[in-house]
Amino acid sequence: MKHLLSIKELTQQQLLDLITLAKTIKANPAEYRHALDGKSVVMLFEKPSLRTRVSFDIGINKLGGHCLYLDQQNGALGKRESVADFASNLSCWADAIVARTFSHTTIEQLAEFGTVPVINALSDLYHPCQALADFLTLAEHFENISDVKLAYVGDGNNVTNSLMYCAAILGATMTVICPAGHFPDGYVVAEVQELASRYGGKVVLTSDIGAIEGHDAIYTDTWISMGDPTPLAEIKDKFAPYQVNKGLMAKAGAHFFMHCLPAHRGVEVTDEVMDGEGSLILQQAENRMHAQNAVLVTLFS
Ligand code: CP
Ligand code: NVA
Q1: What is the pLDDT of residue 24?
Q2: What does pTM read for this prediction?
Q3: With a cut of 0.90, is the ipTM above it?
Q4: Identified catalytic residue from 67, 221, 243, 292
Q5: Measured from the CB, is residue 162 less than 6 Å from ligand 1?
Q6: What's the pLDDT band for 74 if we cut at 50, 70, 90?
Q7: CATH number assigned to the domain with residue range 7-126+288-300, chosen from the 4 options 3.40.50.920, 3.30.565.10, 3.40.50.1370, 3.30.420.40
Q8: CA dihedral of 255, 165, 162, 115, whole degrees rounded to 10
Q9: d(CA 288, CA 1)
Q10: How far apart are CA 300 and CA 186, in angstroms?
Q11: Which of 260, 284, 290, 292 is catalytic?
């Protein structure tokens, strides 16, 4: 493993190894206190963040490394100088780059023109660290991850894409339920189906909210992702049947609710589900750090 740009680059064994390592680091943090001794990681963010920024910063510190946060105020990526020059300069000092960008192409360029590992901290296409943390969370509740039946409801976005790749590669079952016109990109779905047939996963996409029945966990995300100028009023009615509420959870027969956060309470999910017994949101948030630390330890080993 040279970079983590997308889940699709990983084999089933690599994914399982990352989940196992994340569990080990979570259980025995002291053993990894020096794993990143002397290493410096630059975190480059074009978009806001709470969980990703804090979990990387604190996680890197717990591994003995040092990190530096770069926002866009001291020269936006690709504006003051090219992404290629940015990447080659950062590689002179940093041992790895964590980047959250608008365009996935920017992350690919950082990997192409830099000489150090690049970790995707969210792009318009993917959110691999999120999906890793989410499947780590599921693995803490299900002995065999391939037994999991996950339903994703709402907008087909970067989070959906990474979750689909994970489900396909891990041999799990995932149903993606989106309003018409809001499905994940066709080529992503085609790649996911190819991986699912290779690894024994099952990924089904539909607009029929009735397909929610018979799932273990229901996952949703914002209906409007960062950088999308669509006003909520424009899509609200179309998305309303896809809101995760008590009725939908009951219909699904699901014990668990998942959300990558930030959530829009009363929009894509109700308070009673967010704060309900089966809500895994804080476990997911905590696991961001353990999953990312497993990625860092693997990239540096
Ligand atoms: N889930 C997630 O990536 O949260 P942030 O946008 O706060 O980093
Ligand atoms: N799909 C969301 C995820 C936020 C963590 C976005 O891209 O804004």
Answers
A1: 98
A2: 0.98
A3: yes
A4: 221
A5: no
A6: confident
A7: 3.40.50.1370
A8: 140
A9: 19
A10: 34
A11: 260
Q: Provide the 3-class DSSP secondary structure of residue 1.
A: coil
Please, what is the average pLDDT of the chain?
97
For the chain, the straight-line distance linking the first and the last C-alpha, in angstroms and rounded, comes to 10
DSSP character string of 254-297: -SEEEE-S---BTTTB-HHHHTSTTB-HHHHHHHHHHHHHHHHH
Q: Whose CA is nearest to atom 6 of ligand 1?
A: 49
For residue 163, the ligand closest to its alpha carbon is: 2
**109 classed as catalytic:** no
Between CA 113 and CA 88 the distance in angstroms is 6
117 is in an annotated binding site: no
Domain ranges in the chain are 7-126+288-300, 142-279
Q: Could you confirm whether 288 is annotated as catalytic? A: yes
Select which of 51, 53, 100, 259 is catalytic: 100
Domain spanning 142-279: CATH superfamily: Aspartate/ornithine carbamoyltransferase (3.40.50.1370)
